[in-house]
């Protein structure tokens, strides 16, 4: 009797140990495991992916780099390959585009990652986050990105991307954040960027590129928290980017050739950072600047401004807003500069 009781107790444990691996392994589909192993091979079998092998569940290989969904049907939802020690120049693995249920893709801080972003990226129809930055990826931004209607955040900064800005990005219905800064992108800003379909866009960063031409008047309709167009070759009437009704908090236009009368500009009350240095802006600074209660950064140096600096608010005595913030203009005067004559 005792032997029977012990057997009844041990048998479920043995069965659990025996069955568990099979149950767990079901979480990783054979299709996705094959794709991941191909990705490893296409990357040159980097040492950081040594845990990836065919005998175990891919959802347990490296939870830092792979995340799987928690509900059936299980799928790989996040792939994070940042910082891999690639053995040499390597293109974006084409097998990534076989992970059609992927939600988030991170490929960054890999200087040996080269070549273009393949148009097949549009295979990832469920992608919400796409981060490919601080790499040597080159070529144009693929128009096919606009086919991924679920995209929420795009970061393609710090690469060698060239060509022009795809007008179709404005058609993304849920986009909120776009970072395309620090590349070699040229040409004008598309007219369509003044009318994004998404009402949730909060960030548009296009700085440190080779953008040129007059800024489209349509950008009067652009209303984001952060707008960074600095260090390009843009010209024209940059005043369309401002407006008393806009929610913008941080606007950076430094290092362009914008030309407009700043005295006629109405600033949104949420502005905390305003960088207009190294342009061709003229006129007299408006009194409205003293009413910006959240202002922490201001730089209008190296322009053609003239007349007295408005007194009050945060324009005097609020570091780092000091004399250097107003220097190298035509004839600005009064604190923190010398008094007007």
Automatic annotation (TrEMBL):
- Which protein is depicted? Leucine-rich repeat-containing N-terminal plant-type domain-containing protein
Pfam families reported for this sequence: LRR_1, LRRNT_2
In its UniProt entry, the species of origin is given as Stylosanthes scabra
Which range is the signal sequence, renumbered to this chain?
Answer: 1-25
The record ties this protein, via InterPro entries, to: DNA_repair-toleration, Leu-rich_rpt, LRR_dom_sf, LRR_N_plant-typ
The record lists the lineage as: Eukaryota, Viridiplantae, Streptophyta, Embryophyta, Tracheophyta
The family database entries (PANTHER family) matched by this protein are listed as: DNA DAMAGE-REPAIR/TOLERATION PROTEIN DRT100, L DOMAIN-LIKE PROTEIN
Q: What keywords is this UniProt entry annotated with?
A: Leucine-rich repeat, Repeat, Signal
User: Where do the Leucine-rich repeat-containing N-terminal plant-type domain residues begin and end?
Assistant: 30-62
């Amino acid at each position: 009797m005792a032997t029977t009781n012990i057997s009844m107790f041990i048998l479920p444990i043995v069965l659990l140990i025996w069955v568990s691996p099979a149950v767990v392994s079901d979480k990783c589909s054979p299709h996705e495991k094959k794709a991941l192993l191909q990705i490893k091979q296409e990357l040159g079998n980097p040492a950081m992916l040594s845990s990836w092998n065919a005998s175990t569940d891919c959802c347990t290989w490296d939870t830092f780099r792979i995340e799987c969904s928690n509900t059936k049907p299980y799928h790989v939802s996040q792939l994070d390959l940042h910082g891999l020690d690639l053995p040499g120049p390597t293109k974006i693995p084409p097998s990534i585009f076989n992970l059609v249920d992927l939600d988030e893709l991170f490929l960054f801080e890999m200087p040996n990652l080269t070549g273009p972003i393949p148009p097949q990226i549009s295979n990832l129809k469920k992608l919400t986050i796409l981060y490919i930055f601080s790499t040597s990826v080159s070529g144009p931004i693929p128009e096919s990105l606009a086919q991924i209607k679920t995209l929420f955040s795009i970061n393609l900064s710090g690469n060698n991307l060239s060509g022009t800005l795809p007008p179709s990005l404005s058609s993304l219905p849920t986009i909120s954040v776009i970072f395309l800064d620090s590349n070699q992108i040229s040409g004008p800003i598309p007219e369509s960027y003044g009318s994004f379909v998404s009402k949730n866009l909060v960030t548009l960063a296009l700085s440190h590129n080779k953008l040129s031409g007059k800024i489209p008047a349509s950008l009067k309709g652009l209303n984001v928290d952060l707008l960074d167009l600095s260090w390009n070759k843009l010209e024209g009437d940059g005043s369309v980017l401002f407006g008393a009704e806009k929610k913008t908090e941080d606007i950076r236009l430094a290092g362009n050739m914008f030309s407009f009368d700043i005295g006629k500009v109405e600033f949104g009350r949420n502005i905390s950072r305003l960088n207009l240095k190294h342009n061709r802006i003229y006129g007299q600074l408006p009194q409205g600047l003293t009413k910006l209660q959240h202002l922490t950064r201001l730089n209008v140096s190296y322009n053609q401004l003239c007349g007295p600096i408005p007194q009050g608010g945060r324009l005097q005595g609020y570091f780092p807003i000091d004399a250097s913030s107003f220097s190298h203009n035509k004839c600005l005067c009064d604190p923190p500069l010398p008094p007007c004559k």
